[in-house]
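Milestone M4 deliverable, item 7.
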Amino acid sequence: MSSLPDDLSRFLFLVPYVAQREDGVAVDELCEHLSCTAGELHRLIERCALVGTPDGGPDEMVEIYLEGDRVHVALPQRFVRPPRFAVEETLALLVALAPLRKSALPSVRDRAERLTGRLVELAGERAASLAPLLGRVTIHADGSENPSVLRVLEEAVRDQRAIDAEYYTAGRDALGRRTLHPVALVQARGEWYCVADDGKTYKVERFRHAALRAERFEATPPDLSAVRRRLESGRLEGELESIVVRIGEREERWPTAARAALRRFVRTQRGRAAIVSPEDARADVLADATALLDRYSEP
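Output delivered:
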């Protein structure tokens, strides 16, 4: 007889494959797919005739049975009917979707909006108790990326189209025009970056304008893991200064342009991180924390 791992792998194939066939599947066909004999298949069915939760009832079992020379699978109701969420479960999903509805990426934001509407629609009458709560969930985004620029960059990456861009270079303190071939969008330390086909990265918030060109290009994206590591380490092109952060016993340096992400990071450390220098960065984080406290203080 087959070993347990073999039985499990065959079972995981057998259930969805047979369940989608109302009239079942012939034994010979299953034996061919599972590379087993008819006897091994019969023993597998006997071993896994009823599968479900240990404390479940008959309506929570996956039933596998032989009828003549065909195998049939009967799924429990939970697998063939759409899920019905309790009010608390629906609310939890809506709260989880809230930050995505404020995402800087237009495609993510649009999908989250549609999914939120669909959840409320499926909730039916129960949605009446949720409607007032939706307006009380507020997400304050730290990023300053232009949504119209992000939309253009998304389309350029998806369709492999060049763009005409007006871009501010911090190192030279200069605004210039250039043609780029975007191959990816990467988020690091809370900031969005456009990755070009030559591996160079461009901070999205520094794009003053971006427009799609008719021309298309073919390019293999660079090693995005290496790009992300470089961005996460703070070694950004054109950054002349950095912010010193003490985390426990060690110190790290953050690029001055990543202050929004730095504020978020300091909050998550719950007192374990402190800004060493410069002084204006310390004041910036303090003002951010004070503003948050004011939002939750008693009126």
